[in-house]
Design a protein that fits this description.
This protein is of the alpha+beta class and about 475 residues long. About 30% of the residues lie in helices and about 25% in strands. The chain folds into 2 domains: about 240 residues, 4-Layer Sandwich (Glutamine Phosphoribosylpyrophosphate, subunit 1, domain 1); about 200 residues, Rossmann fold. It binds iron/sulfur cluster (SF4).
Length: about 475
C-alpha cells in the first residue's frame, strides 16, 4: 500500500462491476456511463469487455474511467453485451495485467469475468490448480475463479458457475460473460452488493443502483445472496443455488463506501447514514454551537446529528474536489500540506465556536489529529470528534483494504488514549447496538468491529497470517 493512498485515513474501496445485455444498443457506451457512476468504488484501473456472442473485445488500462476510455476507443467496442469493472487493488499488485475484466479463451470459447470481493481460499485453490497444470497470468483471486470455472467447462456456463460456487469461499459479486449469456452471482453471505436493472428490453447488473439511475434504467431488485442470475435471449432466469448461509452484507457499504443515492438490500445509503447520525446524537449529546462534517462521507450523518440535537449544521471544512488520486509526500511537512490541500477549515464559520465534528470512521487516526489541529488554528474553542460507527478493531478479508491490524489505532489504544492522540476535547463512537438500531436490522457483516468473520479468514493474506486475528476460524 503506497502511503499517499492513505491520505484520507479511510478503508479503501474495493471494486465496482457493471454488465448489460442489450442487443442493438451501444453497450460499450452504456457500460462506460455505468462505470462513471461507480468510480468511487475503485480509481486505479478501469476496463470494458464487449461480446457479440462469440468474440470478446477488451479495453482496460490504469487510471480513471475518463482517462482509460476515449471516443475512439468506445466507437470500436461493438457487441450485444458488455461487462465493465473499476478497480482498487485488494489482492494482486496494482498493474494493468491485474486490471479487469479478465478475458480468457477456454474449452467453450471466450469468457470474460469481473469480480468485486476477495476470496478466502485463494492460496489453497491456486496451489491445487497449479499442481494440476494451471498457469496464471495475474496475481489476482479473480483469475483463480476463472480457472476453477474452466475445470467445469464440460457443463453449461450456469452449471459450471454452480459447481464453482462450491469450491470458492469468501466474498464475491461476479459478472461472467460467455457465448450468448451474461451471468451475475453473489456469494452465499452477500458481502458485496449486486443489483438488477432494466432499460426497456435490456437487463443490467450493477454493484450499486446509482449506476442504473445514471443510464436511465429502472431498479428491479438485488441479486440475493447465493443466487445466480442468467440473462440471454430468453430474458432473465434465476438460480437460487446456495441460499442457506446467514446474510452478512458489508456494513461499511452504508458507513462509507457506497454512494448516498444508492439503495442496497432495501436500505438507502443516505437514509442509513442519517439514522446513524440521529442515533449518535442520542448516545453522545454534546453542548456545542455548531455541527460540522468531514466531507463527504461524514456529511449525511452530521445532518442527522444536527437535526436530532437541534444544533446548527455548518460547512466548517471545505473539500477541494479537484485533487488528483495521488500525491508525492516524501516528508511529514508535505503530508500535512496534503491534508490542507484536500480539506480547508472555514475560519468565519469556526472562529469562537464549540464544534462537533462528525466523521464516519477512524482507521489510523493520523488525519483526524491533523483536522482537529486545523480547526483549533481556525479559531474553534472546543472540538468534539464523533464517529458514526464503532471502533475498527479488525482487518477485512472480504474485499476492503483496512490496513494491518497493528496499524488500526483502536487495537493499540482505548477511546481516551485515541482522544488524547487526536487532541480532541472529547471522542465518541457510535455503539454496535446503536448501529443495528439505527439501521433496524442485524444481518450485516460487522467483522471489522467484532472480529466475528461470517465466512472465516484466509490462512494467509496481505496482512500476514490471518487466523491470528480470526480466532483460528478458517
Ligand atoms: S469485515 Fe468490515 S469491511 Fe469487511 S465485509 Fe465485514 S463489515 Fe465490511
Amino acid at each position: 500500500m503506497s502511503e499517499e493512498l492513505w491520505l484520507d485515513d479511510k478503508p479503501h474501496e474495493e471494486c465496482g462491476v457493471f454488465g448489460i445485455y442489450a442487443p442493438g444498443q451501444d453497450v460499450a457506451r452504456l457500460t462506460y456511463y455505468g462505470l462513471y457512476a461507480l468510480q468511487h468504488r475503485g480509481q486505479e484501473s478501469a476496463g470494458i469487455a464487449v461480446s457479440d456472442g462469440e468474440h470478446i473485445q477488451l479495453h482496460k488500462n490504469m487510471g480513471l474511467v475518463s482517462e482509460v476510455f476515449s471516443e475512439a476507443v468506445l466507437v470500436n467496442l461493438k457487441g450485444k453485451m458488455a461487462i465493465g469493472h473499476v478497480r482498487y487493488s485488494t489482492t494482486g499488485s496494482s498493474n494493468v495485467a491485474n486490471a479487469q475484466p479478465l478475458v480468457f479463451r477456454y474449452f467453450n470459447g471466450m469468457l470474460s469475468l469481473a469480480h468485486n470481493g476477495n476470496l478466502t481460499n485463494t492460496e489453497e485453490l491456486r496451489d491445487t490448480l497449479g499442481r494440476n497444470g494451471s498457469v496464471f497470468q495475474t496475481t489476482t483471486d479473480s483469475e483463480v475463479i476463472v480457472n476453477v470455472l474452466a475445470r467445469y467447462s464440460q457443463n453449461s456456463l450456469e452449471e459450471a458457475l454452480m459447481k464453482c460456487m462450491i469450491d470458492i469461499k469468501g466474498a464475491y459479486s461476479l459478472l461472467v460473460m460467455a457465448g450468448d449469456k451474461l451471468l451475475g452471482v453473489r456469494d452465499p453471505h452477500g458481502f458485496r452488493p449486486l443489483c438488477i436493472g432494466k432499460l426497456k428490453d435490456a437487463y443490467i447488473l450493477a454493484s450499486e443502483s446509482c449506476a442504473l439511475d445514471t443510464i436511465g434504467a429502472q431498479f428491479v431488485r438485488d441479486v440475493e445472496p447465493g443466487e445466480i442470475v442468467m440473462i440471454d435471449h430468453n430474458g432473465l432466469t434465476s438460480f437460487p443455488v446456495m441460499t442457506s448461509a446467514k446474510r452478512s452484507s458489508c456494513i461499511f457499504e452504508y458507513i462509507y463506501f457506497a454512494r448516498p443515492d444508492s439503495t442496497i438490500d432495501g436500505l438507502n445509503v443516505s437514509w442509513a447514514r442519517r439514522q446513524m447520525g440521529i442515533q449518535l446524537a442520542q448516545e453522545a449529546p454534546i453542548d456545542a454551537d455548531i455541527v460540522i462534517a468531514v466531507p463527504d462521507s461524514g456529511t449525511v450523518a452530521a445532518l442527522g446529528y444536527a437535526a436530532a440535537s437541534g444544533i446548527a449544521f455548518e460547512e466548517g471544512l471545505m473539500k477541494n474536489r479537484y485533487i488528483g488520486r495521488t500525491f508525492i509526500q516524501p516528508t511529514q511537512e508535505l503530508r500535512d500540506l496534503a491534508v490542507r490541500l484536500k480539506l480547508n477549515p472555514n475560519q468565519t464559520v469556526l472562529r469562537g465556536k464549540r464544534v462537533i465534528m462528525i466523521d464516519d470512521s477512524i482507521v489510523r487516526g493520523t488525519t483526524s489529529s491533523k483536522l482537529v489541529q486545523m480547526l483549533r488554528e481556525a479559531g474553534a474553542t472546543e472540538v468534539h470528534l464523533l464517529i458514526s460507527s464503532p471502533p475498527v478493531l479488525h482487518p477485512c478479508y472480504y474485499g476492503i483494504d483496512t490496513a494491518e491490524r497493528e496499524k488500526l489505532i483502536a487495537t493499540r489504544k482505548n477511546v481516551e488514549e485515541i482522544r488524547a492522540f487526536i487532541g480532541a476535547d472529547s471522542l465518541h463512537y457510535l455503539s454496535q447496538a446503536g448501529m443495528e438500531k439505527a439501521l433496524g436490522r442485524s444481518d450485516q457483516c460487522m467483522a471489522c468491529f467484532t472480529g466475528d468473520y461470517p465466512a472465516g479468514c484466509p490462512k494467509t493474506s496481505q496482512y500476514g497470517v490471518a487466523q491470528e486475528s480470526c480466532g483460528g476460524k478458517v
